[in-house]
Amino acid sequence: MLHSYIPPRFFRDFIKDNQVEMRYVQSSNNSSDLFTKALPTATFRKHVHDIGMRHVWRI
Question: Which domain of life does the UniProt lineage start with (predicted)?
Answer without folding.
Answer: Eukaryota
